[in-house]
# Entry
Amino acid sequence: MLEIEDVHTYRGQSYVLQGVSMRVPDGTCTTLLGRNGMGKTTLIRSLMGLSPPRAGHIRLDGEELTGLQPFEIAQKGLGLVPQGRHVFPSLTVEENLILASREAARGNGDGGAAWNLDRVYEIFPNLRDRRRNRGGELSGGEQQMLAIGRALMTNPRILLMDEPSEGLAPVIVERVEEVIRSLRGQHLSILLVEQNYRVGVSSADHVYILSKGVVVWDGSPQELDAAEDVKHTYLGV
Amino acid sequence: MSAVVRVLDRRPAWLRAAVALVLLAVAAVIPQLGSTFYVSLGLNFLIFGLLAMSLDLIGGYTGLVSLGQAAFLGVGAYGIAWGLKQGLSADASIGLALLAVVVTALVFGLAAVRVGGITFVILTLALGQIIWGLAYRWVSVSGGDNGLPISDRPGLGPIDLTDSAAYYYFVLVIFVICVLILRAIVNSPFGLTLRGIKDNEPRMRTLGYHVGLHKYLAFVIAAFFSGVAGVLFGFFNLYISPTAIDFGHNGTVVLMAVLGGLGTLWGPLLGSLVIVFLQQYLSIYVQRWVTVQGVIFVLVVLFAPDGLWGLLTRMGRWLTKRLGAPPGVEPCLAERSVVGTYEDDLA
# Structure
């Protein structure tokens, strides 16, 4: 389980995360929703150690992650699908995946078989066809699949997905949703950060809403669906 | 015709091996031409080719262009000169020189790999100038402006290397070994890691890579091969002075690598061939050969930013296309139009 306890993070002079607490229980998909500029990506950066929190605790299975370097945090089992995908443009698809390949830190989150090239190609057949192409030659949708496949290759305990639906054609967004659902079905622990309400809620077990650096609401997707005022105030839907 | 095109397009392993053998044969014939000038030209090419390729490991593959690579050549050459002056054997002097190179790189690397981009360029320039400054001013060790003589070349068992043709063959063998090692490094998982770092450093961190350590290792390995070039350089000239490692020479190494094409290993080798040829050959006939070199450099940077090697590769591809890959032959992936678009996702 990933526990985030009263995390405070600054980006330069601005006080972005003002005491965020969340939990990502094992084998579930936890979603963090919120509008632009509310601190979602900063939270992801804090988890990965890219923007270390000034105060607070981040624990993975009880082990403190705060204060560790990003590469150490990755080795502990946090796998990131970054916002904007950021595949390696000059490396081939296969090289992108091989580079990420890593033995599971403490067994897979999903308890199933380890992720390897074959398993990634199985869920993303497109990538197999494109395996000799460079990352920069892929379409946005393919890059997103590659970014997800790359994170899976690290055999993460927790998969962090930062706006995986951003900037994609609707048909690809649906494909991303399918993939998230299937990963959740395999009991991989996922923290999904989204702006897209439907994507965020469709596969979630539990939803948090972030606004101006604090968690303003949390509950089940069904509860959120019913809470029209919450959706209206914080998400604009 | 179509069979030829097919072979050229696929570039099978035997074709590469054949090309390498032909080049090696050409290199082996040079001393037989009977002119010491060609031997000296060849030695310069091999030594600076190795230096430029070692720069490519850190500059082209890792994305950290060092303006102080010739300094390691200097440490290597000064190392043997100093060792021999102290009365050490040639073997011990070579060992001492390479050790000095590695230690220097281990110390300099601590500072250098902490920064990236232009800061790295400037920092390595400064570090290179430190070595130059020491060579120039630390007279008791380096001989200052006068430099240090290197008494003579060691023999290789029964083989006498005093003869420049014999020394040429010796350098050729060391060169080939070094190139094979460098090639193995860039094709290894470590090499892939370096390319990943060049592409996107933060991403490599979040994939669990200790980026600093990898950059440090690449820096030290690159310096080691520059040091090997330095030892070969020292025994070639039998003399080393600060001029060999001044700012201009550090710049020339970068010029060779960029002219040939960074990140290809063969590109910097080609670049060094061109520059050595201009410096040693053209300079005999054209007084303003530096101008020629400058014009060539500007043209290459403007019209072939990926260097001469990149230009050759693209020309090869264009030719294959022009001649028409025969039907039924899957074109080389690199030439297929493959850039996926938003529209592809909609389809």
